[in-house]
Amino acid sequence: MGDVLAGIHAVWEFESDSVLIRYERGIRTPKLFQVLGERRVPLEAIAGVTLTPGRRGTVVLRIAPRQGADPLIEAAAGQLRESSDPYRLVLPAERGTLAEYYADELRALLDAPGPADRHLVAAPDVPLHFKAYDAKASFDGTAVSFRWFWTGASSAKWKAGDQTFPVAALSGVEWRSPEVFEGHLRLRRREEAVEPAPAQADQDPASVVFGLGYGAVHESLPFAAAVLAAVRRASPENAVPVAAARRDPADIAERIRHLGELHQAGLVTDEEFSSKKAELLAQL
User: Fold this and answer.
1) Do 256 and 232 touch, CB atoms closer than 8 A?
2) How confident is the model over 141-193, as pLDDT tens digits?
3) Domain DUF4429, which positions (predicted)?
4) What is the model's pTM?
5) Weakest mean pLDDT among 70-74, 85-89, 127-131, 179-183
């Protein structure tokens, strides 16, 4: 199509075989978008297109990527907030007719709605690194390294020592958003089929845990996506993101009780309390 549609935080350029998404770098732009910079989404990576009313006089044009087509979306496993969805373009309502035109044009070019057998959208470039609560995590494209911080790492991790995991030794990645309780990045190793990993991420030397200001989405999610893409390339049949295991109901109840105490003490707002409580209940 060769046309451009400018929205809030991003510009979409419609080409004959792809959609090029360029993200703004303003202070109001979500940090994840700023890190991504731009992404080229091949038409074969798109399952569908929607146009819906947005908030405060806006409309939202959204691409639905095919399952398995984008390592970033695979790693996120449905945990991204709507405002950080890299496939949403928010536009003023008066541009709704134009957006509908582009949506129709794009739909006419799509013919592959099912799951993709490989990643079709490029993963974030390496090398990548970020600070978790208990370690510095680094990925150079061939191996993931964890260097423990004495102020945050558990005794189990100190005992195991700093860790390096070649991509060939991995079978998948588990990313749990730092915006919920017990956020972490866990590497799934092939050897787990013989020797299961510890249940808690803070006890597992193949995991780093997040905390306030540590492992932010815009740092840890691109990292997880790049690792997942590398594992998939090394062994396509085994590379899958792993959903975090459901928690013990008693543990969830205790965490909700503790959250309530923080709320009563004024340390958590009404909105934060409701949001976090809903996230905990969703783990049941």
Assistant:
1) no
2) 999 999 999 989 999 999 999 999 999 999 999 999 998 888 999 999 988 76
3) 12-106, 137-227
4) 0.81
5) 179-183
Question: pLDDT exceeding 90 applies to what percent of the chain?
Answer: 70
Average pLDDT (31-50) is 96
SS3 labels along the chain:
CCEEEECECEEEEECCCEEEEEECCCCCCCHHHHHHCEEEEEHHHEEEEEEEECCCCEEEEEEEECCCCCHHHHHHCCCCCHHHCCCEEEEEHHHHHHHHHHHHHHHCCCCCCCCCCCCCCCCCCCCEEEECCCEEEEECCCEEEEEECCCCCCHHHHHHCCEEEEHHHEEEEEEECCCCCCCEEEEEEHHHHCCCCCCCHHHCCCEEECECCECCHHHHHHHHHHHHHHHHHHCCCCCEECCCCCCCHHHHHHHHHHHHHHHHCCCCCHHHHHHHHHHHHHCC
- Token pair 């991504």 is at which residue? 36
The class level of CATH for 3-107 reads mainly beta
Give dist(CA 49, CA 81) in Å, integer. Answer: 19
Q: Can you say whether the dihedral through the CA atoms of 78, 83, 87, 91 is positive or negative?
A: positive
CATH topology of domain 128-241: PH-domain like (2.30.29)
